[in-house]
Amino acid sequence: MRAKTVTKRRAAGGGLVRVKVKKLQKLIPGGRRLKADRLLLKTADYILNLRLQVNLLQALSKTYQP
Fold first, then answer.
1. Radius of gyration of the chain (CA)
2. In this structure, is the dihedral angle defined by the CA atoms of residues 44, 41, 25 and 14, taken in order, positive or negative?
3. Among 4, 39, 47, 48, which is disulfide-ready with 34 (CB 3.0 to 4.6 Å)?
4. What is the distance between the alpha carbons of residues 34 and 31, in angstroms, rounded to a whole number?
């Protein structure tokens, strides 16, 4: 009986991962055409790019403060 419960959990977890991957594909530019492994790499690059943009904008805002 325990084996069936574990199998059900794994199946449900796999579905949950699929749903989350689909959501991530919508958030990342160009993500809809990527498979999960490439999507995760692209996501990491996208996060770094956003962080750089934030840092640049923070530096610019300090420069132009009265």
1. 19
2. negative
3. 39
4. 5
For the chain, give me the number of helices (H) and strands (E)? 2, 0
The DSSP-derived string for 6-34 is HHHHHHHHHHHHHHHHHHHHHHSTTGGGS
Count of Cβ atoms closer than 10 Å to residue 24 Cβ: 16
Taken as a whole, the chain contains a residue count of 66
Q: What is the pLDDT of residues 23-50, one digit of tens each?
A: 999 999 999 999 999 999 999 999 999 9
8-state DSSP, 35: -
65: left (phi over 0), alpha (psi -120 to 50) or beta: beta
